[in-house]
Every structure is written in C-alpha cells, then in structure tokens.
Design goal:
- This protein is of the alpha/beta class.
- It folds into three domains: 16-134, 3-Layer(aba) Sandwich (Rossmann fold); 149-261, 3-Layer(aba) Sandwich (Cobalt-precorrin-4 Transmethylase, domain 1); 264-389, Methyltransferase, Cobalt-precorrin-4 Transmethylase, Domain 2, CATH 3.30.950.10.
- It is 36% helix and 18% strand.
- The strands form three sheets. It has a five-stranded parallel beta sheet with strand order 7-6-8-5-9, with helices on both faces. The chain has a five-stranded mixed beta sheet with strand order 10-11-14-12-13, with helices on both faces. Strands 2-1-3-4 form a four-stranded parallel beta sheet, with helices on both faces.
- The chain is elongated, with a radius of gyration of 35 Å.
- The chain starts with 15 loop residues before the first strand and ends with a helix.
C-alpha cells in the first residue's frame, strides 16, 4: 500500500481508493516507475489510499491491488490506466479483470478513468517535448577543454560542410589560429572574446614559419587556453597537422584531431566529377603539386601514381603544364580528360575542362589562378551529366535577374 501524509482533499476519508494500473514489464525500472507514479499521485492529489497494480508479469495484479484497497477501508475504487494502450488493454483486459474482482465485493463501487493517450494536456506536453528536442543537439554538446589543442579541419570552403564537432569547438575556444584558406564565415562561429591569430601561408606571399605556429600552439595551451588550430580541408591531408601533432606530443600538450572534408574529395564532387565510377575508375591517387620544402614539382611522385585511373593534384596550378607533360611521358594518353576547379564549393567556383594536352593552355586562356584542384582521368567526362552545383548557381542568377 502506498501511504501518504496528505490529509486534505475530497477523497481523504479512506472511503475512496485509487488503483494505478501499469502494464507490467520484465524490466524492474519500468515497474518501479509505476510505483513511483502511484506515490506521486497520492501525495500531490491528497489521496490516502493509493495502490499500484499491473496487468501482466509483475505483482500485485489488478485483483490483488483492488482487494488491498478494500481491505484498507475503500468503499469505492477509481481505476486509472497509467499510459496503457487504449485498445485491447483499456477497452478489454482491464474492465474484465476489474469487474471480476468487484463481483466479489458487491458493496464496493468502482469507476475506470479514460486512458491518458488522447488527453489534450498529454498532447500539449508531447508538443512541448518535441519543441525542446528541436532546440537541443542530438547529443550532449562537448565544449573545448582548457590546456588542450584541437587540430580542426574547416572543410573546403562551404560553411555547410563544417562538422558539428568543429562548430562546437569554435564556439567554445579562447584562441583560434587559422589558415588563409579558411572561409571568413567560419570564423563567425568564434565568440567576440576569443583571440584570432592569422597564420596562413600564401603561395609566393606572406608566410608564418611552421616553427612559430608550433610555438604559439604550445604557449597558448600552457597558458590554460582552449586552443583551436583551424585548417582548410582536413588537417592530416597536406595540412601539416601531423607535424603539429608531433610538436604537441613532444611538448607534453594534450591534443585532439577533428577531421574535415578534404578539398580533394569535395571540390570534384561540387564540380560534378565523381572520383570513382564502376565504368571509369576504381583507383584514386591524391598528391601535392609542389614540394613542401622548395615549392618545386616532384616528378618522381607523379611517375609513381601515373597508373591510377583518377589523379587529384592539390596546390599544383603553378606547375600544371609540367604535371601534364610528366604524366604523358609516364604513359598517360594526351587525350586523357582533365579539369581544374578554382574556389571549389564557393559561389565563385570556376571549372575549366580539357585534356592533358590542352588543359594548361585552356587555364592560361581563361586566366584561372590558385587556389585550384586538378582532376585527371576519364571520370571528368561525367561532368556533362553530373554537374549540379554550377547549374544551381546559374539557376539562382537567372531567378534573381528576372525577379
């Protein structure tokens, strides 16, 4: 029996008993929930006689609970189906069991309340919970920790391709060290109080030495700052993230790597070029178009990947003519399709298509400049059918023009 301390209310003369009926489960916590609800209803409703009961599996069953209430002086019993389904249970099983036990106590009256499932207040409460869910992340938000460095990939440019984890860290960091190719809109996620340090490397222009970047990361982390090192694309694909991770390791600084969508994958996709296709390509090679130390073309690396059916070259626009020539020397057909995509995933995206023999001249004729991604292989032919992003941009422009 659930006993309560309340002495007020219209049903506190020990004449009315309340039977809270749950379904009954093999899970103890589900049954305990029904017992707790019965206790809360008694306390908040001012009911002196309240008993939990179950239709199946668990005890007390309905007949047992009803009998206990009668034994404690109840002369009427209100049976409340606690979130039972309104079909077979509340319309069939429950009335039958209550009527059977009530027949053994002809001097005791009873009523069965309507199930809660369609009650307006339950529906309103459900709507409120749904709205709360819309305003809450699908998982607990994990903010940046003090004294830790996060090597974060910002993706290829389109802010919509930023990962949820990257967004969490940017909005909770104390300092962010960011590269030249990071979209300024991404930095809008950083709070106004956070320190922003530009450490980008521009080909042929200003350059922050890697040793200085490493020093800043270590210094800020040791000052108990929440540090984000924000890179374009993915930090471990030609982003020198491995070097920075090593420097942090040797300095005893904890770090986390947050992968980003690489431009090697996203930019061709935005240009309508699948890197693999059952009819065209089952192998992909990704390489840098210039050596990290002296900026020169690594002809040996090109020779080693010449047999790949799709070749993606990052940071290689300055050496495009040499790249095409070396691949032809390595055995690629001069007619192999090639594409160069500038500012991929941005609204200013431009794509030039040609062959290994003609692509350098086409790019020079158009005046395409870095940053750009080079794609070489038969998959480039699919662009005529698969191109979607630039078509969408054209449609938007036409809609605006005629609006």
């Amino acid at each position: 029996m659930v006993k309560t301390n309340n002495s007020s209310g219209s049903h506190n003369n020990n004449q009315t008993g309340i039977l809270i009926v749950g379904h009954g489960s093999r899970r103890a916590e589900a049954n305990d929930d029904v017992r707790q609800v019965a206790r809360s209803i008694g306390e908040r409703g001012g009911f002196a006689l309240v008993e939990p009961a179950f239709l199946e599996i668990e005890h007390p069953r309905v007949a047992e609970g009803f009998t206990r209430l009668v034994a404690h002086g109840a002369r009427e019993v209100i049976v409340h189906p606690y979130f039972l389904s309104p079909g077979r249970h509340t319309r069939g099983d429950l009335p039958r069991e209550v009527s059977e036990v009530a027949a053994r106590h002809p001097d005791v009256g009873y009523r069965i309340t309507e199930p809660l499932s369609a009650h307006p207040l339950v529906i309103e409460a459900s709507i409120e919970r749904i709205r709360e869910g819309k305003n809450t992340s699908f998982r607990d938000r994990q903010i940046a920790e003090r004294g830790r460095v996060y090597l974060v990939g910002s993706g290829p440019g389109d802010v919509g391709l930023l990962t949820l984890r990257a967004s969490e860290l940017l909005s909770s960091c104390d300092v962010v060290l960011y590269d030249y190719l990071v979209d300024p809109d991404v930095l809008q996620l950083v709070t106004n109080n956070a320190e922003r340090i530009a450490v980008g490397k521009i080909g042929g222009g200003a350059c922050t030495p890697q040793t200085e970047i490493n020093r800043l990361l270590i210094e800020k982390a040791r000052a108990r700052k929440r540090v984000v090192r924000l890179k374009g694309g993915d930090p471990f694909l030609f982003g020198r993230g491995g070097e920075e991770a090593e420097a942090l390791y040797y300095a005893g600084i904890p770090f986390e790597v947050v992968p980003g969508v690489s431009s090697a994958l996203a930019v061709p996709a935005y240009a309508g070029i699948p890197l693999t296709h059952r009819d065209y390509s089952s192998s992909v090679a990704v390489l840098a178009g210039s050596h990290a130390v002296d900026g020169e073309l690594d002809a040996r690396a090109l020779f080693n990947v010449a047999d790949a059916e799709t070749i993606v070259v990052l940071m290689g626009l300055a050496h495009l003519r040499e790249i095409a020539a070396e691949l032809i020397i390595s055995g690629k057909s001069p007619e192999t399709p090639a594409a160069v995509i500038r500012w991929g995933t941005y609204e200013s995206q431009q794509t030039v298509v040609g062959s290994l023999e003609s692509i350098a001249g086409e790019v020079e004729r158009v005046g395409l400049r870095a940053p750009a991604v080079i794609v070489i292989g038969d998959v480039v032919r699919l662009r005529e059918r698969v191109s979607w992003f630039e078509k969408r941009l054209t449609e938007r422009s036409l809609t605006t023009a005629f609006a």
